[in-house]
Automatic annotation (TrEMBL):
Source organism per UniProt: Capnocytophaga granulosa
Classification via InterPro entries: WH-like_DNA-bd_sf (IPR036388), WH_DNA-bd_dom (IPR027395), WH_DNA-bd_sf (IPR036390)
Signal peptide coordinates: none
Domain of life, per lineage: Bacteria
All copies of domain Winged helix DNA-binding, residue ranges: 16-95
Pfam families: HTH_34 (PF13601)
Protein name per the record: Transcriptional regulator
Amino acid sequence: MKTLLAHINKAFDHRIRLAIMSVLMVNESADFNTLKELLGVTDGNLASHTRALENEEYITVEKTFIGRKTNTRYKATAKGRQAFQEHLEALEKIIVVTSDSD
């Protein structure tokens, strides 16, 4: 079991970061308000978790203006997609190994 846990990515330990990446894996991009509404989180909470993913280079942030309002969009990077896929595969291996032991 210890070797299986070695492939779990700490960046996705938190449910909000896991959810952000899940949304970005199936959508080309998502804006701040969409993520906030989908996940039911506060502005500050979402900002801190997207910053953590950005620091890992798992997402990119694009700020534009729509009229006079800023629009912040997030996209998963190739590095982020790969890391998230590896994380999911590690979770699947844990499920298979533990279900086989029953």
